[in-house]
Predict the structure of Putative aminotransferase.
Amino acid sequence: MSNLPVQPFQPPLRLLMGPGPSDVHPRVLAAQARPTIGHLDPAFVGMMDEVKGLLQAAFRTANEMTFAVSGPGSAGMEACFVNLIEPGDTVVVCVNGVFGGRMKENVERCGARAVVVEDAWGTPVDPGKVEAALTAHPGAKVLAFVHAETSTGVESDAAALCALARAHGALAIVDTVTSLGGIPVLVDQWGADAVYSGSQKCLSAPPGLSPVTVSSRAVDALKSRKTKVQSWFLDLTLLTAYWGGGAQLVRQPANQQTSGGISAGSKNPPGRTYHHTAPVNALYGLHESLVMLHEEGLEASWARHRAMHAALKAGLEAMGLGLLVAEASRLPQLNAVTVPEGVDEAAVRSQLLARFGLEIGAGLGALAGKVWRIGLMGQSATPRHVMACLGALESVLGAKVPQGAGPAAASRVLFG
């Protein structure tokens, strides 16, 4: 017992420019420090309604079933799969990186058949291959794909892929964990059916919440399930009943017992059924980050991410560093930078952290040791971050790159 820590944990100050989390604005941190209230307090319920409306605006959707799942983006992913897929279903899964592979894993754990459409890492999903797979499997219930593949920095054509799903009578499950707030996510325009994201990327809230939105078409599929949703905690009918608007999806027994501080027989707010103790302060933070996104404007946020990417790209190229993904399908907010020949990529990352307090990401899977992943997401997409990253990289790489070239090139893009 004498060896237990007696001092509060004091995290070091970092510049977060990896694949997530991104830097969190002081406004969001301050919001999370506000007094905790009950998760069925009328004031908190009112804030939940605001979160729902702000998420609908961010997703560009009118979907009634829109809210934040209590858990990271992986929980949002699992929620979409376990609710829409039943044992024996056929699902076409697009795999062009780590997170497409996780989709496949979810399909198989649901007892369904995964028909994999595979593309090389660093390239977008090929709509031609998807159409061929859907044609070859006319009974496919779902098409699943990653809009912004975090492991490679590539964007796939969500509009085209969702259109193919509709044309073949399939639902579209779309991963927008790295795209929401950073590039256009147009749920209703695409015709996407179940879309999930994460709080810690371009929304720049701390990790731990997963925004999800589900179309009326997907709700109909959920209603017509032949089996129970395999996860009680992630059952969207139960979650929607808590977030409001779920009465048409699930009927609660008249004598329902509740727990977690809500006594049996107590009255919940109108249209709300107690489900779980929501992470109250974390939702304060997400609310504040969404308010900040609304204040900036979605289009302005998209433009800011593009502008910061243009400056970073100019600086990297001036230093002789290349990007993995072709420009036409390159994400502005997640840049996969090819490691120069003879450079120890892990040592570079370690020195960036030790010398400058700067975090960038390593490559995953097939790209391990071959790329650095530099994030320009949310509050990490600023001129300060771009210039600091290029200067730090130049210092660590030393004679391997032309000194002064990177920051100078980025400065010209940023400031003329």
